[in-house]
Design a protein that fits this description.
Blueprint lengths: L2 H11 L4 H10 L2 H19 L2 E4 L1 E6 L25 H14 L3 E6 L7 H14 L4 E5 L5 H10 L3 E3 L7 H7 L6 H14 L2 E8 L6 H14 L3 E6 L16 H14 L9 H6 L3 H7 L4 E2 L6 H4 L15 H14 L3 E3 L24
Parallel strand pairs: 1-8, 1-9, 2-3, 3-4, 4-5, 5-6, 6-7
Bound molecules: S-adenosyl-L-homocysteine (SAH).
The site of S-adenosyl-L-homocysteine (SAH) has 19 residues, from loops.
Length: 363
């Protein structure tokens, strides 16, 4: 397959089949990546202008019942110092974030039974009441439909749940037997049915990943049609079974960002913290390769070093205000600006506000 023809097809039709994706990913060199990045950036600018949506990430618990081999807060990591914020701590982060210009808060954490679903619902309700012009995203892993529905009814707008890999054998290379790809995918479909803006995604360069498994990831995203896609490089954590594995590359992550932007032109696509950790200018390069979202940390300084999913994570020593001005400089250095708005998916009609009633379920 001629690589230029594949690129042309992707740019014109926003669609490749699995074999074509694998061929593109195997064959793309620096020149092709540059070409794809230019096309992807143009798609993003056509839809979102030079405005970058900003999400304030509040990492509210690092307790986790799961044991994912790649993750620094996995259950078996006895060296992780565990913490759990209180709702009041979380509200303080929101208050600070709101003043700094954040209009989306993301509550992310491990799967922590100690922060009950009920408490999370009440926390969501309070945030949506106090900061009614803000969107709220949850990223707390796998739950059953009833719980997801209660999060939605409490006012949560969006849900991030990376599928991690769409290949069955690869999923088992990354996770213990208790976790299954089928369940992960089912959660994503359920979240979509309930009415959340949904984000899936994966790490680039995870152990065992190949052009073929990546092609399966892209096909899965094509089927799911998520509102958001989270992609960052795999980075090893010293106290995990993957401590000695090689990190994913910045270049390949940028290539995948461009591919996703061209496949799903309207998608909300963050230039992730992991990308900023892999390269000092990783997030800026991510934006120039088609990303349109950044997710700076709003967690209290006292806990930041404890939410270590991978080694050397950036911004763990900075106050939120420092992160804000640092990021603003980075954006203006590439001629982009921080958008003080919720930044909902363009795929949505009029977004739900806290005053409106819950819309009828779709799908
Ligand atoms: N418990 C939640 C949140 C997980 S942390 C959930 O299950 O969705 C968010 C993401 O960080 C994960 O989905 C994973 O893709 C990423 N991550 C975890 N460990 C990582 C590592 N070592 N390198 C890069 N990204 C990692």
């Amino acid at each position: 397959m001629c690589i230029d023809t594949l690129i042309q097809q992707l740019c014109c039709t926003h669609w490749l089949d699995q074999a074509q994706w694998a061929a593109l990913l195997r064959g793309a060199g620096a020149q092709e990546a540059k070409h794809l990045a230019q096309a992807a950036q143009a798609e993003a600018v056509a839809r979102f202008g030079k405005k970058i949506y900003v999400r304030g990430l509040i990492e509210f618990t690092n307790y986790c019942r799961n044991d994912c081999y790649y993750c620094g807060i996995r259950r078996s990591n006895a060296k992780a110092q565990r913490y759990r914020l209180t709702p009041e701590d979380i509200f303080a982060c929101c208050a600070e974030g709101y003043d700094l210009g954040f209009r989306t808060f993301v509550l992310q954490g491990g799967e922590d039974a100690g922060f009950s679903d009920d408490l999370l619902c009440r926390t969501v309700e309070t945030i949506k009441k106090r900061w009614s012009d803000c969107a709220l995203t949850l990223s707390v892993g796998e739950r059953n439909r009833g719980v997801y529905q209660s999060f939605f009814d409490a006012g949560a707008d969006r849900y991030l749940l990376r599928h991690e890999t769409a290949n069955e054998a690869h999923y088992h290379r990354l996770h213990p037997a208790a976790l299954s790809l089928a369940r992960r995918k089912e959660c994503l479909w359920t979240l979509k049915e309930i009415g959340f803006q949904v984000g899936a995604g994966f790490m680039v360069g995870a152990p065992g990943q190949t052009a073929e498994t990546l092609a399966e990831d892209l096909i899965f995203l094509q089927q799911l049609q998520p509102h958001m896609v989270g992609i960052g490089p795999f980075l090893p954590h010293k106290d995990t079974p993957f401590a000695q594995e090689a990190a994913g590359s910045t270049e390949q992550t940028l290539l995948l960002l461009s591919c996703v932007r061209l496949m799903l032109p309207q998608v909300l696509l963050p230039a992730t913290t992991a990308l900023g950790t892999a390269a000092a200018d990783g997030r800026e390069r991510g934006i120039l390769a088609g990303a349109n979202v950044v997710m700076p940390n709003l967690s209290p300084l006292s806990v930041r070093k404890k939410y270590m999913l991978y080694d050397n994570k950036i911004c763990t020593g900075d106050e939120s205000a420092q992160c804000r001005s640092c990021l603003q400089h980075r954006l203006s250095s590439i001629d982009y600006e921080w958008a003080v708005e919720r930044g909902d998916s363009p795929l949505l009609g009029t977004p739900r506000t806290s005053a409106s009633t819950v819309p009828a379920q779709s799908g």
